[in-house]
Write a structure and sequence with these properties.
It is a single chain. The protein is of the alpha+beta class. It is built from 3 helices and 3 strands; from the N terminus they run H-E-E-E-H-H. It has a 3-stranded antiparallel sheet, with helices on one face.
């Protein structure tokens, strides 16, 4: 996956503060425009945890095929959000976990 798709909103993503979630099945949350956006399901592994917190680093799988399957499932929602320059949970998951 070419990470250049995030170039337009990457400065905003890098300025976000990310926290470990206290929700039952969510890994992290970020505050975007005063609103908490939860992302990452605790029940599943991710390609690589890039949050800087590393709370779920042990769940990294590094499997490129699984990464491609993730983008096949979530690519439309990701592309729609990026086209609108909107940070959503799928954008956060894709950027920081996949």
């Amino acid at each position: 996956m070419n990470r250049s798709i995030f170039n337009k909103i990457e400065p905003e993503l890098l300025d976000l503060q990310i926290f470990t979630s206290n929700r039952k099945n969510k890994k992290y949350y970020a505050i975007v425009n005063g609103k908490k956006l939860y992302f990452g399901d605790k029940k599943y592994q991710q390609y690589k945890d890039r949050t800087g917190l590393g709370a779920f680093k042990s769940m990294d799988h590094g499997d490129n095929n699984r990464r491609l399957l993730y983008y096949a499932r979530h690519g439309k929602n990701l592309n729609d959000a990026l086209a609108k320059n909107k940070i959503t949970s799928v954008v956060l998951s894709s950027y920081f976990l996949w």
